[in-house]
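Researcher: Good morning. I'm working through a list of sequences from a screen, and I'd like to move beyond sequence-only analysis. For each chain I'm collecting a predicted structure so we can compare shapes side by side. This is the next one on the list. No need for commentary yet; just the structure.
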Amino acid sequence: MPVLRRTLTALPAGTVRDLGADGRGSPGAAPSLEPLLSYRRADLVPAVAAYLRHRGQWERAAADLGVHRNTLRYRIATATRLLGADLDDPDVASHLWLALRTGGLA
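Model: Good morning. Structure tokens for this chain:
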């Protein structure tokens, strides 16, 4: 973990370096999990975590969650809209994955 900590500390402000222990991030950190954590109509955080864990494979991620793939598609579309970011973008995916892992959510 010390190597990861040094790596994250060396990053410029406004990147994953600014993520707090809760994964919410500081103002300007990109992307923040706050929109997903605040959304109450669906379990978006587990959906995003499964989607990223399975590298966008709908069937495997949906099976991991125990939901139909269309349910997962709806949740990912909602997360994409709330975040204003494409989860298939490698930069977005890596930032989100680190935020989820840092916050103990994945």
